[in-house]
Write a structure and sequence with these properties.
single chain, mainly alpha, 2 helices
Length: about 55
């Protein structure tokens, strides 16, 4: 059994069967990727906002 710790009080994690049974919908649009490695958070945010505004 695999487990992970939860740092939110009273939050119950789903078991594997609940994850498997969850209804999913396909992602049907272009995704936005911002490479945050080696840059300040404000730069990443500016890049993200610019991409969201342009498309």
């Amino acid at each position: 059994m695999t487990s992970r710790s939860v740092d939110v009080p009273d939050l119950t994690s789903p078991d594997w069967q609940q994850v498997v049974n969850r209804e999913y919908e396909p992602w049907d649009r272009e995704r936005v990727v911002v490479d945050t490695a080696g840059q300040e958070p404000r730069v990443s945010l500016a890049e993200l906002l610019a991409r969201l505004r342009s498309g």
